[in-house]
């Protein structure tokens, strides 16, 4: 299993429950493929560098996880079609 990190930028127009539902949905995609999720780092509401979908702010979440090499492609496919996700990025941190 490899270590990865998912960065999500969720729409600031959502209420707290809807935002948590988006994060839980992303976590569900990881766990259903056999991945193990670490501690989620929620940065909160931040100003975006540029306007995305006519929005200037978004909530940032960083989700570290361990999974098989096929999981990031599947997770990326699912994040692409999630309505309230403004941006996402899956990276593999450097091994130290």
Structure in a nutshell:
With 96 residues, the chain is an alpha+beta fold. The protein has helices at 16-32, 71-80, and strands spanning 2-11, 36-37, 41-52, 55-67, 85-91.
How would you describe this protein?
The chain has 96 residues and is of the alpha+beta class. It has one domain: 2-Layer Sandwich (Alpha-Beta Plaits), CATH 3.30.70. It has 2 helices and 5 strands, in the order βαβββαβ. Strands 1, 2, 3, 4 and 5 form a 5-stranded antiparallel beta sheet that branches. The longest helix is centred in the first third of the chain and has 17 residues, at 16-32. The mean pLDDT is 91.
What share of residues is helical? 25-40%
CATH class: Alpha Beta
Largest sheet: 5 strands, antiparallel
The averaged pLDDT comes out at: 91
Q: Outline, from the CA principal axes?
A: globular
Number of structural domains: 1
Strand content: over 45%
Number of helical stretches of at least 4 residues: 2
- How many β-strands, per DSSP? 5
> Do you know the CATH architecture?
2-Layer Sandwich
Please tell me how large the radius of gyration is.
13 Å
């Amino acid at each position: 299993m490899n270590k990865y990190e998912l960065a999500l930028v969720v729409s600031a127009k959502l209420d707290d429950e809807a935002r948590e539902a988006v994060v839980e949905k992303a976590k569900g995609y990881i766990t259903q493929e056999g991945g193990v999720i670490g501690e989620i780092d929620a940065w909160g509401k931040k100003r975006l560098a540029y306007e995305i979908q006519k929005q200037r702010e978004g909530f940032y979440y960083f989700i570290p996880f361990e999974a098989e090499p096929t999981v990031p492609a599947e997770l990326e496919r699912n994040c692409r079609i999630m309505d309230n996700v403004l941006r996402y990025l899956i990276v593999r941190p450097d091994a130290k």
